[in-house]
Design brief:
Blueprint (H helix, E strand, L loop, with lengths): L10 E2 L2 E2 L5 E2 H14 L7 H18 L9 E2 L12 H17 L3 H18 L5 H16 L10 H8 L1 H19 L17 H13 L2 H17 L16 E2 L2 E2 L6 H18 L2 H14 L10 E2 L4 E2 L2 E3 L2 E3 L4 H18 L2 H8 L5
Helix pairs in contact: 1-2, 1-3, 1-12, 2-4, 3-4, 3-5, 5-7, 5-8, 7-8, 8-9, 8-10, 9-10, 10-11, 10-12, 11-12, 12-13
Length: about 350
């Protein structure tokens, strides 16, 4: 799925559909995946680092002078018409922070730092919840991570230039206000409707709690995640993502089509909850998310193919959607990574890493 420009967005089956081009969204997800997975497989880290540099170059290329990111690009590298996306901005910032924190090469980390510094002013202008969530998680990680590799700018200097603490407090407050407006007995959520990428909202608050230490934030993070996990669990016990054919509200919940991205975001929130709460229920939730990809789902059919690391684009009433695009494949790889990180010993971790190919 990756060429010398970046990660292609869609596939027909397993064959890339070049005519549908690239997105910054997918290349940011891929950069995030490479940044963390390369730690799992030291003997093959060079492969991951080469891929990471392709995705870093893509983000550098698509970042505009004002620090925002163009998202959609045709196969001939020409930008496509679009409306600016807060979500895209947040994903790119999150990917850049992971690259800055995880990649060992100074040049790559310098590129990630450049992306972050250029994005800072635009981050102050974000207006939508999922853009807030990604950026809040990114800045919170930057605030709490230990600096592992030397770079020209120290972490405190970078935090000061980004005005990180001010933005953490503002975005955390935005999500808390959103929750207080929409949540009520029987509906512990940030919005009147559950739509897409839901797990990023409790994930972001669990992330910011580790920076700010506010107990009210931890309470809302737990309450909302537990509610989301309940809404995404079938009575039989397996994961049932909220479908994109109508989403969910207080009186309705769509069953189809189920998206791999929703399962990965639930696992992501559960991993952060496990770090804070230490509860085995969140470790078990990550396991159930992982098993959804392998057939523990409403159709009892696997979506993931461990032989090549690919993943079907969704689950329909008739079974898996056989197309295997970038978003779905990376969602599987990241879920597999999170499961392996918490459940496997070193030997098993390396064995699993060998099959993760983007």
């Amino acid at each position: 799925m990756t060429d010398d420009t970046g990660l292609l967005e869609h596939a027909l089956g397993s064959v890339p559909r070049r005519q549908e081009g690239y997105t910054t969204d997918d290349n940011a997800r891929a950069l995030w995946a490479c940044s963390v997975i390369q730690r799992m497989e030291p003997d093959a880290s060079e492969r991951w680092l080469k891929l990471a540099d392709i995705y870093l170059a893509f983000l550098l290329w698509l970042q505009k002078e004002d620090g925002t990111f163009h998202n959609n690009v045709a196969y001939d590298r020409s930008p496509e018409a679009e409306t600016a996306s807060d979500d895209c901005h947040g994903r790119a910032v999150w990917a850049a922070v992971n690259a800055w924190a995880e990649l060992p090469d100074e040049g790559s980390r310098w590129a990630a730092e450049t992306i972050l510094l250029r994005s800072a002013a635009a981050a102050q202008q974000l207006q939508f919840p999922r853009g807030w969530a990604y950026t809040l998680a990114a800045y919170s990680r930057l605030w709490t991570v230990e600096e592992c590799y030397p770079l020209q700018m120290t972490r405190p200097e970078l935090l000061e230039k980004l005005q990180a603490w001010t933005l953490i407090e503002r975005l955390e407050g935005n999500l808390m206000d959103l929750y207080s407006t929409s949540a009520e007995p029987g509906w512990h959520w940030f919005e009147p409707q559950m739509t897409y990428g839901n797990g990023v909202l409790p994930w972001a608050l669990y992330s910011s709690y580790q920076a700010t230490g506010r107990d009210t934030v931890r309470r809302v993070a737990k309450e909302s995640l537990d509610f989301l996990a309940e809404q995404m669990t079938a009575k039989e016990g397996w994961i049932r993502p909220i479908g994109n054919r109508g989403w969910a509200d207080r009186g309705h919940r769509s069953r189809w089509d189920q998206q791999p991205l929703e399962v990965m975001k639930l696992a992501l929130a559960a991993r952060e909850a496990y770090r804070v709460e230490g509860s085995q229920e969140y470790k078990e939730l990550i396991r159930r998310c992982r098993e959804w990809f392998h057939g523990e789902n409403d159709c009892h059919r696997p979506l993931a193919d461990p032989s090549d690391g690919s993943c079907c684009d969704g689950l329909t009433p008739n079974g898996p959607n056989r197309n295997k695009g970038a978003e779905s494949t990376i969602s599987f790889l990241l879920t597999e990574y999170m499961f392996a990180e918490l459940h496997c010993g070193r030997d098993e971790l390396e064995k699993r890493a060998e099959m993760l190919n983007i």
